[in-house]
Amino acid sequence: MKALNVQLLMTGNELLSGDIVDSNSAMIAQALKELGIEIKRKVTVSDDIELIAQEIKNISQQADILIINGGLGPTVDDMTAQAIALASDKPLTEHPQALQHIKAWCKKRKSELNSAGLKQTLLPDGCSIIANSVGSAVGMQLTHNNCEIYSTPGVPKELKVMLNEEIVPSLAKKVPSEMKLEVTRLQVYGVGESSLQTLIDDEFPDWPDELELGFRATIPLLEVKLTSRTSTAKALKIHWLEKLKSLLGDHIINEISSRPINLAEQVLTLLREKNQQITTAESCTGGLIASLLTEIPGSSQSFEAGFVTYSNTIKSEILEVEPSIIAQHGAVSEATVLAMAKGALAKAHADIVIAVSGIAGPGGATPDKPVGTVWMAWGSSNKIFSHCFHLNGGRIYIQQHVAAIGLDLIRRLLINSEEQANYLK
Amino acid sequence: MKALNVQLLMTGNELLSGDIVDSNSAMIAQALKELGIEIKRKVTVSDDIELIAQEIKNISQQADILIINGGLGPTVDDMTAQAIALASDKPLTEHPQALQHIKAWCKKRKSELNSAGLKQTLLPDGCSIIANSVGSAVGMQLTHNNCEIYSTPGVPKELKVMLNEEIVPSLAKKVPSEMKLEVTRLQVYGVGESSLQTLIDDEFPDWPDELELGFRATIPLLEVKLTSRTSTAKALKIHWLEKLKSLLGDHIINEISSRPINLAEQVLTLLREKNQQITTAESCTGGLIASLLTEIPGSSQSFEAGFVTYSNTIKSEILEVEPSIIAQHGAVSEATVLAMAKGALAKAHADIVIAVSGIAGPGGATPDKPVGTVWMAWGSSNKIFSHCFHLNGGRIYIQQHVAAIGLDLIRRLLINSEEQANYLK
User: Fold this and answer.
1) Does A251 lie in the same domain as A161?
2) Whose CA, among B137, B138, B171, B346, lies 20 to 30 Å from A350?
3) Model pLDDT for residues A336-377, shown as the tens digit of each residue
4) Are A153 and A18 members of one domain?
5) For residue A355, which of A274, A278, A282, A254 has the smallest C-alpha distance?
6) Domain coverage including residue B131
7) Cα separation of B407 and B410, whole Å?
8) Which residue does chain B place closest to A309, by CA atoms?
9) What is the ipTM of this complex?
10) pLDDT reported for residue A193
11) CA torsion, ordered B389, B392, B396, B397, to nearest 10 deg
């Protein structure tokens, strides 16, 4: 079967001026991809009625489906309805359902229906409307030159609702069910994309063509995507997903069912399950690990105290690190980071600790401790582990990388993992 | 004078699949805007040589300038050079300067020049190259159908360098100097966009048309932009910029000359100038303020210790807040946050402190303290100020808003400001 020719027409001066980045087209592409529909071409033009009409004429002659985004609002630069009317040589007429929608919208918001609002009810003759449950402007649907045209609002929230509630269900009917895609997404950490690709090539030389394997870097996590057509045998999918999962082991943070999660959220979930408390003792990450944990709602249940101890004096005074340890081994050392971890555990009355001392740069390096040298200690009062990492990159990159590693070390501790992670590849 | 017709052609499957958001075209638009050049139209297509060649043919017939982005790399999906050759009916030949570039590139990285690398030296006959100081692929420049075509790499870092070093200077020659734009940018905080617009309308009813005033929200800061043509009288610009600056007063963080700065950076600059130390005592922001400060290189000079004290016990044990104060007034209260500030100052031996205790939600609200109730205390051992803010929004939004307000309060303290900020509009 021939693939549908689907094109996008994005309108708006702000998309061409660089004042905003166009994320709407990515939202449309992602929604359509689940149906197995790929976008062939996208054209972006400014709020110029002649230009918009010209593109609609051109695209409708090539494409099966055209999705227009933007230009449905009440102001003078909103001119998609007029442009469609011009391109398809149809008059603008007041659409009864659009009028009904805007009246109800104004009533709900206790505002007057003015002439700007009434402009939104003038639509190309013969079009049907696409409901908008969260905004004043309805969308339009019509056929021109055998091309199905959908016109959608530029406000991302409104576009999202219209895509999910109206357009995707409508397009789904045009795609044979065996063409549709089923996607399984795993969030992993502790293995790099290229090592993982090599590992899979080596372990699974007979990986079936029907299952497309993809990777997407969602820093710091890696998303592993298994995509197949609905027509692919279910048994085949289950079999290879299991093999993939067993290969990935404890690198898997989460299988995305409803929404992706992050490392801090997973750590807090595990802590809650065990009814345990965590504390942080941070030098070079400067509160970033504490901040990532406390971003998560309900974190106060498992996090009572965190310490940012930059100077040596403070490490000694607040975390009771013996000054002689720092004097002998330096602030960035195994002995110091272990003492920081012990001190924080005691001061915070916590069960679990992560302590970090390192050189995030650009200053602070010594010949034997270059920028990126980071000692971490993590564990419980039973046992505290420690390791020295050597990272590359700028200050913020190093801080973020260290924070992610720290959270993942805690996650692996909490699931009693004995597998080895490789955080540097 | 007629404006130049400038169009963009963006190539890459990932731009149409929604896996990445296209920020390169915004970068190009912003760079060209400084020259007074607007982009008229943008077309995005997948890595399909026929499609790319077709678009090049079409656009080169309409436009004065075409900037192509993407497809210059060594892999098989990189096919811009072939597409230009196809569209312009020119053979691909080995370009001596491109060969020289890739040889030097490989030598510097101690890697072998392989066939994939050699592919990058095969360029359309007669084109000139655009130097790439940070990547393996050179850009191309040629004229076809009287249209000047620039071909640029998809890697943002490489695009940026090529724009700044080669393309903008080259295009600048095509634009008459009186058409060029001069932009002055002020970073402000403590006054909202709509209040500022009203204030300017009221105060400056005779604001001249030749000076365009624009706003850009760069959360948390607001960027105020004053744009004029080079031909506008210099005296006029200086006069109104001074009036604007005097209206904005201490809301101004920075006038952007080379690069924007953030609140934490400005606070640290002021602290260094005064040779003072800051400490943080955070409850609902959970280390975010400390983390924003320590993101900045050299922060260790002015920041030795920060405290994240979530629970009441920890507030008492670590910051020596009297348990009776918390019992009587609650953790989110003026008395508690003042005691936290005093405790942190003493423990950290610091000169300046910011302390925060509030309810970031979604849990933790009480009838008289809804989500968004945040007490802040800031000052020095001489005088500690306090204020209760009532914020709206989700947890992370509230945390980020509180952190920005906290840093701005410190900034105003350090410049001895007596002006009033309005953080909630």
Assistant:
1) no
2) B346
3) 999 999 999 999 999 999 999 999 999 999 999 999 999 999
4) yes
5) A282
6) 6-175
7) 5
8) B305
9) 0.81
10) 78
11) -90
